[in-house]
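not sure who needs this but someone in the group chat was asking about Protein-lysine N-methyltransferase ACMD2_03153 from Ananas comosus so here u go. i didnt clean anything up, its just raw.
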Amino acid sequence: MSTDVEQQQRPESAGDEDDDRPALSARALEALREFLSEQSAAQSFAGGEAEEEEEEVRLVAEDWRLSQFWYDRITAETLAEEIRRICDSDPSSPSSVACIACPTLYVYLKKLNPDISANLLEYDKRFEQYGDDFVYYDYNQPEELPAVLKHACNIIVVDPPYLSKECLEKVAQTVSFLARPQGPFLLLLTGEVQKDRALELLNVKPCSFRPQHANKLGNEFRLFTNYDPAERLGGWERN
């Protein structure tokens, strides 16, 4: 119930005040509606971008002392999709993937295709967080790996940490150790300067697809494969 005092403090008439308010013209109202619609669309777009950012995989910080440079999202997802296609090409033979010194790819692969069997061979023990999938790997000891991995992998992806001849030679030994007898699908990510050496040691050729890193590198980076991906990955580069 209202008291007399409350009644005296109220405005005389809300209706009277409304009558005194200026009214917008039809043209002004239409402009206001258009503005509010644009604002709503902009907010929805920004929200969509935020959702996309949340979908990106977050890794530990790069350690440049270990020559670590993470792939950008497009590169990691493109490589993960290529691996999925290879796995699907022969469903009668279970695939086993070795990701050598490429944790970005491993993480995206398991995020997008959790049922694919994959191991991360990596020197940085921070990646022990991935449990049994993690295998400690020092390229200076190219075959000091669990016996269960010997000739067990039909897909091998390798990103040697250094652009030296010695490093690539030792990584090639690791590939031989891991590869199934019938031969693996091999994807090598390294600098353009390794092109001739990569062909000699691993019989791989450059693809047109150009991998990129989240933090841009000064040297030109390439993807090489030992199989012709046809229309995928831009195919082998034609001279």
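also Helices lie at 4-9, 14-20, 26-55, 73-89, 103-112, 165-178, 195-202. if thats useful
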